[in-house]
Design goal:
100 residues, Ubiquitin-like (UB roll), 3 helices, 5 strands
């Protein structure tokens, strides 16, 4: 069977293809890819992982052709950022209405 392990930084993405005679778990695929050696900031106890954009556990067994994705920690909460932008837009609209 073959699977892929993916990790992305803002400026570059890594996609490592693995082949195995035995079924692999998510953890085993990540470890066998050697990505943890290259990127020491990855902590499997902290970073979330997924299979094709669906959150997965480290002990989940992979199927032929699965892509394991290692997610980076978010700098800012996307929902909070959207709320902030909406509030700023509403405030600007209100200010323009009062001035005009």
């Amino acid at each position: 069977m073959w699977v892929e392990v993916a990790y992305a930084l803002p400026e570059r993405q890594w996609l490592i293809r693995l082949e195995s005679d035995q079924p692999l778990t998510v953890r085993q695929a990540i470890e066998q890819s050697n990505i943890l050696v290259e990127f020491t900031e990855i902590d499997l106890e902290q970073n979330r992982v997924g299979i094709f954009s669906q959150l997965a556990g480290l002990d989940d067994v992979l199927r032929q052709g699965d892509r394991v994705e290692i997610y980076r920690s978010l700098i800012a909460d996307p929902k909070a950022m959207r709320r902030q932008r909406a509030a700023e837009k509403a405030a600007a609209k209100k200010a323009a209405k009062l001035a005009g």
